[in-house]
Amino acid sequence: MARILLVDDEEAVRNAVARRLKRNGYDITKKASQAEGIEEVNSVETPYDVVVTDMVMETPDSGLEVLKAALTRDVFTEVIVLTAYGNVANAVECMRRGAFDYVEKNVPGVDVFELLDAKVKQAMERRQSSVSGIRRIERYMK
Amino acid sequence: MPIRKYIPFGLQENTEHLLDIGRTIVEVDDIDVVLQTILEECVRVCNGTRGFLAIIDHDRGSMNVKYVTGPGWADDTKCALINVSEETGKGITGRVAATAESYMCNDTSKDPYYVELFDDVRSEMAVPLSDDVRTRGVLSIASTSENAFKSAHEYVVRNLCDMATTAMTLADYRRRERAIVRIGGELTGITERTEIIEKVLQITAEVLQFEDCSVFLADKDKKKLSLVASQGTMRDFVGRAEYEFGHGLTGCVAKDKKPLRLRYPHLDPRWSGWHGGMEPERISAFLAVPIFDRTGVAGVIRLQREQSKYPWFSNSYTAEDEKILTAVADRLGTALDNSALLDKLIESERMAAWGELSARSAHMIGNRVFAIKGDINEIEYVLGEENPDKEELNEILAGAKRGIFLLEEILNEFRMFVKADKVDKTRLDIGALLKETLGEFFGKRSGVKTSAEVPEEPVMISGDATKLKRVISELLENATNFLPADGEIKVTLTDGLGRDTARKPKKKVRAADYVRIRIADNGCGVREEDKENIFNPFFTSRAKGMGLGLPIVKGVIEAHDGVVYEDGKEGEGAVFNILLPK
Predict the structure, then answer these.
(1) Less crowded by CB within 10 Å, the N or C end of chain A?
(2) Residue B297 within a domain
(3) Does B401 touch chain A (CB under 8 A)?
(4) Partner residue facing A113 (CB), from B369, B374, B399
(5) What is the 3-state secondary structure (H, E, C) of B338-360?
């Protein structure tokens, strides 16, 4: 079962996102800040498959910090950054630094939860293919 | 010493002090000391019995005996008022003042002008203190012997009187210089345009003579001048009198960017008509200088003098007066510039705050809407199931409602912040309002210990009841948020500020005319480094809220001309004080 870490400082947001993702049977861990999120990334026994993090929490680029921590812990962890209005610049910076994608929370006329669900699925697929690729290389090297 | 060459023969032994007088004038700042010294020196040089120096009051047309020397001066003769007059029998001093010519009388019993002040006087000599423009005073020496004074005496006394006039002019310069320096200093702290102009008028009145001093400011297009302030006869025309650039004497000053100094201005072809104040024929002196700021001519400052009742006094403005007024106009221009810059700065800060406010609210509203969308997504999903779970649906609905409530709260906070300074004041009992707010607030939340100390009799103030209630609730809410399990909130209302006036509002109101509301809790208190920021927008130590709570409090209290501050100790609890004028 895929394990997802969800970091957002708004309780209502955490609950809504977690509920939606649970429908697919993912195992969701919720954290309420950049600091808590990074602490979790570093201390958890097995790295998370996907990290979904809000962009603006303690600072305007909290999401970037979570991303850095997640990739430092396990380079195959896929990170999706959530952004509210007007933070596309930061989200693009996340992409440059290896995030899987970013999802804008407020896109008029779009059910962003379905979009997020799709992104998480894609992220899981990429992670699996990356991991299996590495396994093949490992086997070949033996 | 070459000066001795000019001292008439026979007086040399008496004039040794003459050079010291020159030094006194330059070195001694106190004009009274200088004039007294000169008077004494004159009497000594002429072997006089007594002497006095009378100073002319140009506005009243009379003289005051201000300095005396010799025996027999009683207090009433000392301050005697002397008329200025050319007529016979009205006194030698008065004649000298009116004609500005020395007068020597060597037999008082036969003199047509002599008026007796002391019965032992046989000779009197009076010399005017005159500069190029006006006579400022008369120095008089009396002797008990007949034929006491010779032309050589008059010569020396006239020189000493010239020195006295120079000393008086120097004292005027010093006084004016100090005033000009003071304008600079006193204007630095003032940012309100009207206050700046008032201050300038006030200081101008101290250094220049006028019946009216008016300040006109130019409009943006530099086409029209409007009277914005006046001290004197134009006061009633503030906001009404106007000149177009190039029209009228005042308009010409603005257009030509040059000062204008005239006698009888209504005779000048540029004179465009009369706006009120003094009758045109009576205006005998006119002085107007342009005020410059960064944009060019910002306005005109203008002085007018009425015709003197005493024809022997000139009341024209001098080149010196023009220099002074130009210096005043310079200071005024700089101060207006600074005030405009400050306005701009405040405006740009306000715009930046608006930008910040919009970004914050967009973020917070965006987040809430996102969560509500999540709830709707979930409701759709549950409804799509074969047997929708009603209980689950209700739960999600409750979440969505909460989300919408939070949204409304943000909007409300936003609105309160924007409208904080718009208050609708009525007379109200602040004690009753305080008790009512406490009741409503803690009716909803039990578990917090509260105590209220409010005077029994009503404490009436002018205030906006709704906004003040909101302010108190906000502070109570704030206290509750940081309260430990055994938390307590103490609310105190005191009538008057008592001895603690350290934070007394700037406005000049007596401490007794204020009430103090103190809201103290025993929570963690405000961190020392946060104290100066807690009233700034968006400064919040909680994740929730926009950080507008305390800024709203500040806005509302300041709109009431009050003050709010926090003076608790970190670790011992927060103490908020509100001072409101009654």
Answers:
(1) C
(2) yes
(3) no
(4) B374
(5) HHHHHHHHHHHHHHHHHHHHHHH
In this predicted model, what pLDDT tens digit does every residue of B409-458 receive, in sequence order? 888 888 888 788 788 888 999 999 998 888 888 776 667 788 888 888 88
B398 interface with A at CB cutoff 8 Å: no
Give the residue on B whose Cα is nearest the Cα of A20: B378
Q: Parallel, antiparallel, or unpaired for β B242-244 and B135-143?
A: unpaired
Do residues B266 and B238 share a domain?
Answer: yes
Residues whose CB is less than 8 angstroms from the CB of residue B359 and which lie 6 or more positions away in sequence, other chains included: A85, A86
CB contact under 8 A, B363 and A20: no
pLDDT tens-digit series, residues B185-197: 777 777 788 888 9
Q: Which residues of A touch B366 (CB under 8 A)?
A: 84-85, 105-106
Regarding an ipTM greater than 0.90, the answer is no
Q: By the CB < 8 Å criterion, does B403 face chain A?
A: yes
Q: Which chain A residues are closer than 8 Å to B377 by Cβ?
A: 16, 20, 111, 113-114
Q: How many CB pairs under 8 A join A and B?
A: 65
Looking at chain B, the whole-number percentage of residues with pLDDT higher than 70 is 90
- How large is the average pLDDT for residues B355-381? 85
Task: Name which residue leads in pLDDT, A121 or B531.
Answer: A121
Question: Would B165 be classed as within a structural domain?
Answer: yes
Picking from B412, B383, B411, the residue whose alpha carbon sits closest to that of residue B397 is B383
Number of H helices and E strands in chain B, helices first, is 12, 19
